[in-house]
Write a structure and sequence with these properties.
With 176 residues, the protein is α/β, with parallel strands linked by helices. The protein is 48% helix and 21% strand. A 6-stranded mixed sheet has the order 1-8-7-4-5-6, with helices on both faces. Helix 4 links the parallel strand 5 and strand 6. The chain is globular, with a radius of gyration of 18 Å.
């Protein structure tokens, strides 16, 4: 009886793991049009001023959901800062959506001097991340949106500069 129960449990764990891996793999490949939802979203910045994402309509957006308590998030931000500088003139805009306490985010962004907009997501931010494919509600989660408002890449987990450059290059050719 114990042997049968162990086999059943192992089978259920394997099935659940397979489903999770399949969902994680689908995160980065499925294209999703988000124009209406994306551009109707408004989130506050660190000073409490509300910003409509529609102000970046027509740009290639790299939207990064992150938190100060997340080591992989903090590891990728310096690369994003360099890329914001390098790609700003090429119609690319990075936006950070912090899923964290305002003071912790303010302290961290002040310390390292983030050069792109940081918005406070709160529950609305996590809901937005979930709507865009972050089914397990984890950070970091990065979404790349082309100039037409379609998600062309979603990535759960840390994103390297080389991975992001490979995603942006085809988009840049269409916008220069």
């Amino acid at each position: 009886m114990k042997h049968t129960l162990l086999i059943l449990i192992a089978g259920l764990v394997a099935l659940a793991s397979g489903m999770l891996v399949r969902n994680l793999n689908n995160i980065s490949t499925e294209k999703v049009s988000v124009t209406a939802d994306l551009f109707s979203t408004q989130l506050p910045d660190l000073q409490g001023t509300s910003h409509a994402l529609s102000q970046w309509r027509g740009k290639i957006l790299v939207i990064n959901f992150w938190a100060t308590w997340c080591p992989p998030c903090l590891h990728e931000i310096p690369d994003f800062m360099v890329m914001q500088t390098d790609y700003a003139a090429k119609n690319v805009q990075f936006i950070g959506i912090a899923l964290d306490e305002q003071q912790a985010v303010l302290d961290y962004t002040t310390k390292i001097g983030i050069n792109y907009p940081i918005l406070l997501g709160g529950n609305q931010g996590m809901g937005l991340a979930r709507q865009w494919g972050n089914l397990i509600e984890s950070v970091p989660f990065t979404v790349v949106v082309n100039a037409q408002g379609t998600i062309v890449h979603r990535q759960l987990g840390e994103m390297s500069a080389s991975e992001l450059q490979a995603i942006l290059q085809p988009l840049l050719g269409k916008n220069i």
